[in-house]
Amino acid sequence: MKEVDYFQIDELLSEEQLMIRNTVREFVNKEIRPVIDEAAQQHKDIPGLMQKLGAIGALGPYIPQEYGGAGLDQLSYGLIMQELEAGDSAVRSAASVQSSLVMFPIYTYGSEEQKRKFLPKLATGELIGSFGLTEPNHGSDPGAMETRLSKDGDGYILTGAKMWITNAPVCDLAVVWARDEEGKVKGIIVERGMNGFTTPETHNKWSLRASKTGELIFEDVRIPQANILPDVSSMKGPLSCLNSARYGISWGVIGAAVDCYQTALRYSLERQQFGKPVASYQLQQKKLAEFLTEITKAQLLSWRLGVLKNEGKATPQQISMAKRNNVNMALQIARESRQMLGAMGIVGEFPIMRHMMNLESVITYEGTHDIHLLITGQDITGISAF
Ligand code: TGC
Ligand code: FAD
């Protein structure tokens, strides 16, 4: 991927941030692009992906170094997500779940012992984590969760099920959210091998085919006190994790959009119809001009959000707006740019159709397009329309 920087946003980034972006871009060119089409076509993992992401510091980039993270700022995190998603949303998903949905809650709400035990191994990819919030009966309304945590002697019993969970079939541990007997929402570290814990895979997806998705099933799983996150007891816990992941997605999808835009630009300059390059026709130029305009607006939104996040000032509602706008932008660009390739747009030699299908999940997970609109509506009016 070359740079698309119409408004000279690079000038707003530090040398270190630019270097991090280039390192991840090289990684994607070397390790992801050569294998991603086959992985997606075959519905297979990319071999050793998590360890490779760990080796370039893409797992827990903003977690402090003393716990194995890279200790980077939020703009660097965003740029890493952007480069990974230019390769494939499945690769960004792997890194964002591990970073924002597994390492973040353990770092933010975990005990010192939990942090020391899990974070360094999650940072290297030696351990793979997943995040269980969505349930079969509760997706957009996770506050109505049915998964239960009940006291049992010196520990607890966990009962229930989570569905549509990224990396569930391959995870070593899952950060799971359940209500206790007092109705409080608790975060629990469930480890593979605990009796009654199973993770069946969800097959035949048309989207995110290079990522494993599955269920987390808890049949009276005994949980020791040591696996309960001590510093969280409300929906603010899981929703704060989503803030971090949604922010990363707002950057990530810019990468997918740029990959589609550049593919369509190259193709339309080379492809001749009626004796001229397809790019010479006004209808095609309109598409390209609008792609670049929308990408530039999305870049400015995410950059500013990153600055606000670095200053501790970004609100969940600002994050919702950026996630919603940027994912929709990327999906529209994927759909339109696919058409610009004609029939070639449907084959795996070009990345566009794969991005388009992935983005159909990205516009649904981490809060659907419509839910984020309602969050903005609530912020404007003070009235919840959920
Ligand atoms: P509501 O009553 O509004 O709020 C409950 C409490 O939570 C607080 N809160 C937040 N806190 C931090 N960050 C946020 N974003 C927050 N949003 C709300 C709120 O202030 C309140 O606190 P308190 O102290 O007053 O109790 O909750 P609600 O039940 O009405 O629902 C709100 C809603 C719809 C916004 C929320 O539930 C929501 O975001 N729904 C969408 C669900 C979702 O995004 N699920 C994602 C699952 S994980 C996933 O998709 C991973 S994909 C990973 C990948 O592969 O990349
Ligand atoms: P529903 O909530 O049933 O919504 C169905 C439709 O109704 C949507 O269009 C929605 O916008 C609309 N709707 C719902 N409520 C309202 C309302 N009040 N007003 C107007 N419209 C409304 N979850 C996790 O916990 N962890 C993961 O790792 C994870 N990974 C995922 C990976 C993939 C590939 C996918 C596809 C999903 C993943 N999810 C994960 C689940 C994801 O977060 C949910 O799918 C999402 O939150 C939506 O929930 P739902 O699918 O149950 O849709």
UniProtKB/TrEMBL annotation:
GO term, biological process aspect, one: fatty acid beta-oxidation using acyl-CoA dehydrogenase
Primary enzyme class: oxidoreductase
One of the Pfam families matching this protein, by short name: Acyl-CoA_dh_M
Domain Acyl-CoA dehydrogenase/oxidase C-terminal: 240-378
Keyword annotations of the record: FAD, Flavoprotein, Oxidoreductase, Transit peptide
Family recorded in the similarity comment: Belongs to the acyl-CoA dehydrogenase family.
Protein name, UniProt field: Acyl-CoA dehydrogenase, C-terminal domain protein
Lineage, uppermost ranks: Bacteria, Pseudomonadati, Bacteroidota, Sphingobacteriia, Sphingobacteriales
This protein's encoding gene: gcdH2
